Predict the 3D structure of the following.
Amino acid sequence: MNTNQIIILHIYIYIYIYIYRERERERERERERERERERERERQAGRQAGRQAGRQQAGRQAGRQAGRQAGRQAGRQAGRQAGRQAGRQAGRQAGRQAGRQAGRQAGRQAGRQAGRQAGR
């Protein structure tokens, strides 16, 4: 093997190595791109989820508000009802009490009157 052949062989080897390395780099770039795409997808999904959560939050807020409103309304209604009931009850009680009192008073009065009458 003379010098020229050796030089040519070396050149071939170098060319092969270069080509191989280039291919490797290309593959690496492709992988990187794929990863980037994946990340982008993830981000997109994240955004979507965020939006969903936002909507849900708003919904919950509205729900709470409505709940409170309804609660207040119902409370007021029930309060009024109970108040009326209690008022009636108390009125009856007071009426009875007053009636008894008046009856006693009248009885005493009549008794006294009768006593005086008899005394004369």
Observations:
- The two ends are 172 Å apart (CA to CA).
- The mean pLDDT is 91.
- The CA atoms of residues 44 and 50 lie 10 Å apart.
